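Lab meeting prep.
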Amino acid sequence: YKTLSDHPFLRLSTFSECLNQPDTVKKIPHLVTGSWVYGTLSTWIGDTDKNRAWEMLGDAKICYDRVVSGGALSDEQREQATIELAICEGSDWFWWFGDYNSTDIVSDFEQLYRSNLQNLYRVLDMEPPSYLFDSFTFGGGSPEMGGAMRTGNES
């Protein structure tokens, strides 16, 4: 940050500072919903396995809301539960699920995702649902066919 703030051609600011200077705010004439990958939301949703992961997260969020609003957690437990929920809500989990990534990569991320959801339930002092102990996505793609990584040029 220090290097950036000392840069002669850059002026750092916050969103609030920009919004308070209407002459610098420019309208975007057209904004497309999607991702730099395929230009759609398919990176995160739509595939059966991705949708299942969202359902699992939705179930966990309902439990989180119920427990937190019930006031049964200490401040420390509530803070830990919020951190666990944020980990589970990271959009990159959903990137990995589906059949286009390789089996090994999908397996690692899928297992870690389920483990994080299990941790959230435990912090909420709840038994994790049994489905969190079973794999739900297996991959099957290969990197050359558009998976997580592509081979580089060999020299």
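Slide two material, second protein:
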Amino acid sequence: FHLSLDSGGAKLYSTNIPGDLAIVPLTPFGIGTQLIISGSTSSITSIAFDNSGNAYFTDSGPGGTGDVGRIDLNTGVTTTVLTNVPAAHGMVFDSFTNTLMLFGSNHITQLNTDPGLTTFSDVALSPSFHLDQGGSDGKGHLLAADNGGNLVFMDYSLGTHKVGNVGNVVASPFLASNLDDVAPLVGLGSPSTPEPGVVGLIGGLFSAAALAFRRRSRAWNFDK
């Protein structure tokens, strides 16, 4: 269900929600093999890599709320750092803030990649949302898929660069029923040189969302 590339782009990791981990070689493309997961948890949902190539995992089911920690992809050994995190479902590394960006339940959470995986920021969106996976563009914007069909857009490029900043522009227009994921916008898995039409589409979506949808702060529950 959830796919991620390793830091070198030579391997593809595939997980259940949560479940086993498969590793598929890409250079050259070959048959995948299972890596047995052990340690603090035996099943995972998402994997993300920081700028140094360190690997992190989440392990929640479709509804969100689960654990976050580190995983050694040579041995499959997991080390849980945080438990009962509402957003511990989808996860990407955000190169704009150098934080892990988590999506799950109705939360978006940023974590510092320090030993304690401390919370940089968190925001709770509409209680009806069930966020699945998302992506950031490396310039302070993110898109997140709500299983109810809404596409959440956020501009956190100004001010504190926190998702919980009350000055952020946030929009959540309906896009398609059973929305599940957003393809990578930057970094691993994204087009290295997007076609002009793709750039225009993304830029247009960001611009339209910023202009047409101004989030009223009283409708959202932000951190300080």
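Talking points for slide two:
DSSP finds one helix and 18 strands in the chain.
Residues 193-224 have pLDDT under 50 and may be disordered.
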